Amino acid sequence: MISPTKPGQHAEESGWYVVYTRPRQEARALENLRNQGFVCFLPTLSAERLRGGRQVEIAEALFPRYLFVYLEVGRSNWSTIRSTRGVVKLVEFGGVAARIPEAFISALAEQPTQQKKLFEVGERLKVIDGPFVGIETELVRLYRTSDGEARVIVLMELLMRPQQVSLPVCAVRKAA
Questions:
Q1: May I ask the CATH architecture of the domain 124-174?
Q2: What is the DSSP string of 62-111?
């Protein structure tokens, strides 16, 4: 079987290999590789983000710009991977495609979905909107109002005393 990266060089064995994708195109590469009949794996985590001022939960690649594909010696047409939309190349070291142990892929697949929170309690935040712009605060609590708006309660010093203030989530960012 011809290697996916170096014509004339033979691949060692079937297994999981690493695909390097275009920025933020892991899902596109995954879909296009699957449409070609490849078995693929894209480990993800659940992440909270702000979209249009609202807090939303999205699936994000655990390893940005990377996914895994199972290739079979003698059966898989490795040369089509490079021309797949969303794919840059197969990762290689010393001209040989990087093979990943089956145990590593199995361990990743068995892990429960991890969550990446927008903010953590106790984290330092900076107010970026409203009357308190520029003030650094500490996160006390995240909550949702009865109409579904995401808000934070932060601790800030006002009038020489610590005060708890409720702000919209979109009005704060992580402090630098």
A1: Roll (2.30)
A2: SSTTEEEEEE-TTTS-GGGTTTSTTEEEE-EETTEE-EE-HHHHHHHHHS
Question: What is d(CA 29, CA 42) in angstroms, rounded to the nearest whole number?
Answer: 10
pTM: 0.64
Single-letter amino acid code for the residue at 102: E
Q: pLDDT (tens digit, 9 = 90+) per residue, 9-36?
A: 444 578 999 999 999 999 999 999 999 9
Q: Which helix (H) or strand (E) holds 31?
A: helix 26-35
Spans of all domains in the chain? 15-116, 124-174
> Is 15-116 in CATH node 3.30.1330.30?
no
> What is the rounded distance in angstroms from the CA atom of residue 79 to the CA atom of residue 83?
8
Q: Are 11 and 3 in contact (CB under 8 A)?
A: yes
Give pLDDT tens digits for 63-112.
999 999 999 877 667 788 889 999 999 999 998 889 999 999 999 888 87
